[in-house]
Design a protein that fits this description.
By secondary structure, the chain is mainly alpha-helical. The protein has a single domain (1-105), classed as Up-down Bundle (Methane Monooxygenase Hydroxylase, Chain G, domain 1), CATH 1.20.58.80. 88% of the residues lie in helices and 0% in strands. The chain has helices at 2-32, 36-65, 74-105. The longest helix is centred in the last third of the chain and has 32 residues, at 74-105.
Length: 106
Amino acid sequence: MEEQQNLEAVMGLIMYGGNAKSDAMEAIAAAKAGDFELADQKIVDAEESLVQAHHSQTGMLTQEAQGNHIQVTLLTVHSQDHLMTAIAFTDLAKEIIDLYRRMDNE
């Protein structure tokens, strides 16, 4: 059963990380088009996906802390990479949106 839970957590990281990155990209595109309301909403959506991804990751970390060591597979590493990339991308998207917003106000 633990193996199934770990697989679900890994897939959650990949899915939610991917969703966050997609929403962040859509936020940038919206800001580029001058639709800052949509851009802001997409960032909120990205951040909600990141929270869900963190829940998946926390489950894995809790298992590890309880002594239930998780076998690290390429899929596990890939899931962590997805999360880290999504976090970085969302942070950068916020900065890019801010730049578009400033250009729009000039």
